[in-house]
């Protein structure tokens, strides 16, 4: 009974951690936090929600791969929780009420600790850095990464980490690229390696290693900076 309870509680806490991890990974593909969390929860719980945001998953090669991985964890999670819950109910009559009370207190204490840690800035920054390193190595394979900063509805503000400058952008100034007029993408700031952030001007050239902040539609931003 108590071993089953440990498995059940562990699965619940693992679920919370997985939602945070997979949400962060999907955010690195350009989704907002809210959309990423909704899709992760839908996939993990096999709820099968059909929304306009789900098209952002199906129409994106990298996100489809991530979604498959999330669904795999979701099937394992569902099977573990359901089988453990049934076994616990069947052995409930033989349980010691005092021991059950202690077990519940321990679980609540562990769960509260988890909630505190997942909202701690240092823990979040550490986890984000580890996830980003894994993502860049195994998913992006050194390609440019787009991270959403602000969701403004039809458009958003995105931060682009330029690992490799596309040929269409290489060596050209922003004035020559005319991104705002031709692609509806506005470059706000550009930070080069080991330098301060600067407001992008007409003579600014996008270089490898730059971190660029832009305003625009996600599809247009991905098309310009060759996300996939």
Explain what this protein looks like in three dimensions:
The protein has 228 residues and is α+β, with helices and mostly antiparallel strands. It has 2 domains: 136 residues, no CATH class; 83 residues, 2-Layer Sandwich (Alpha-Beta Plaits). Helix content is 58%, strand content 12%. It has 9 helices and 5 strands, in the order ααααααββααβββα. It has a 5-stranded antiparallel β-sheet with strand order 1-2-5-3-4, covered by helices on one side. α1 packs antiparallel against α2, α1 runs antiparallel to α4 and α1 runs parallel beside α5. The N and C termini lie far apart (49 Å). The model has no long low-confidence stretch (mean pLDDT 79).
Largest sheet: 5 strands, antiparallel
Oligomeric description of these chains:
single chain
The H/E string reads HHHHHHEEHHEEEH
Summed up, the domain count is 2
Strand order of the largest sheet: 1-2-5-3-4
Key terms:
228 residues, alpha+beta, Alpha-Beta Plaits, 2 domains, five-stranded antiparallel beta sheet, 9 helices, 58% helix, elongated
Summarize the structure.
By secondary structure, the protein is of the alpha+beta class. It has helices at 2-27, 33-44, 54-58, 61-90, 97-118, 121-140, 174-177, 179-183, 218-225; strands at 145-151, 156-161, 186-191, 198-199, 211-216. A 5-stranded antiparallel β-sheet has the order 1-2-5-3-4, with helices on one face.
């Amino acid at each position: 009974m108590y071993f089953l309870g440990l498995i059940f509680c562990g699965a619940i806490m693992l679920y919370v951690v997985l939602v945070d991890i997979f949400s962060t990974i999907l955010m690195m593909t350009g989704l907002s936090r809210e959309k990423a969390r909704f899709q992760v929860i839908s996939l993990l719980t096999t709820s099968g929600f059909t929304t306009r945001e789900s098209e952002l998953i199906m129409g994106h090669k990298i996100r489809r791969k991530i979604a498959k991985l999330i669904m795999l964890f979701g099937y394992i999670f569902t099977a573990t929780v359901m089988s453990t819950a049934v076994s616990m109910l069947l052995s409930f009559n033989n349980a010691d009420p005092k021991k059950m009370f202690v077990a519940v207190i321990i679980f609540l204490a562990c769960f509260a600790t988890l909630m505190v840690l997942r909202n701690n800035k240092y823990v979040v920054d550490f986890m984000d850095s580890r996830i980003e390193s894994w993502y860049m190595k195994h998913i992006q394979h050194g390609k440019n990464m787009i991270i959403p900063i602000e969701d403004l509805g039809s458009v958003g503000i995105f931060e682009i980490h330029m690992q490799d400058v596309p040929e269409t952008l290489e060596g050209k100034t922003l004035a020559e690229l005319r991104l705002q007029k031709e692609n509806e993408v506005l470059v706000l700031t550009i930070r080069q390696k080991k330098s301060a952030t600067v407001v992008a001007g007409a003579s600014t050239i996008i270089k490898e290693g730059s971190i660029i902040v832009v305003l625009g539609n996600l599809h247009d931003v991905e098309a310009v900076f060759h996300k996939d």
